Amino acid sequence: MATALPPSRATLAEFAIASAHQDAILNLPGGRGLTWRAGDTVLRPSAGDGETVWKATVLAELSHSAGFRTPRPIAARSGAWTVDGWEAWQWLPGAADETRVTDVLDAGEAFHQAVRGLDRPDFLDQADDPWARSDRIAWEEEEAPANATLHRLIAAFRPVSTKAQIIHGDLLGNVMFEPGQPPAIIDWAPYWRPVGFADAIVLADAACWHGLDPTEMLRLADERAEGRQCIIRALVFRIATFELLGIWDAEMESRHAPAVAAALS
Known about the structure:
By secondary structure, the chain is of the alpha+beta class. A hairpin with a 2-residue loop joins strand 2 (36-38) and strand 3 (41-45). The longest helix is centred in the last third of the chain and has 19 residues, at 227-245. Helix 7 crosses helix 9. It has 10 helices and 11 strands. The protein folds into 2 domains: 9-91; 96-263, Aminoglycoside 3'-phosphotransferase, Chain: A, domain 2. It is 42% helix and 13% strand.
C-alpha cells in the first residue's frame, strides 16, 4: 500500500522537532501508512475537530499509574494541538500483542478507572462515521441495516443497567507492551457506554480475529456485570461496522460465526 507524504519541514519545525530528526523521519507500520515518527515524536493526520482538542486536553493531564500510561500530546509553538492537518504525540516504545487478552483487559480497567469522572463530551453527538453509527445500532439508538446475523443478535438484546462513562472502544490492538513499563494505551476511540462494552469488544475481537476460544470469550465475559449482553452488543457493533463499510461478506460471516453462536447459546 502506498503511503501518504510525510508532514512538511515547516510543520515539523512548528512542533519543535530538530532538523536531525526531520531528516530521519520514518513511516510507522499500522495507521494505514499515514503515521510518522521523528525522534521521540509521532505525527499523524488530524481533523483538528472537537474530538482532537478534547482528547489532547484530557491526555495532557491524565494521571498515569502502575497499570497503564498514555502518550502525551505535543502542542505546537503557537499552543495549538493541530498544525496544517497534523497532530503530534510523544512516542512510547512497545508493541501490541492481541493474544495477551487478560493483560489488555487489565490495562483497560486501569485506564477506565482513571477517566471515570469525565463528563460526556459534546462531540459524540456530531459523530456520524460507520463506527459511531454502529455504536448507536448496538445500543438501539439507530436502526440496523439488513443483515441476518445482525438481526439474530439484536433479537437477543436485553436491558443493560450498568452505568455508562467514557470508554476506549478499540483496545485490543492499541495496548502496547514494553518490558519494565506499564502498558501504553494509544489511539483512543471514545464512546459513552458501560466499561463492560469496552471489555466485550476486546473479547469479541480476540475470538473473531486472534484465536481466542469462544468458550473462553464467554467465561471472561461472565466475570463482568451483564457481560453476555455486552458481548452480544459488541458483536453487533463490529458486524454493523463491516456492513456499513461495505465489506461484510461470506468470509466475514464465517469468521464471526463461532463467536455469534457462543453469544447466543
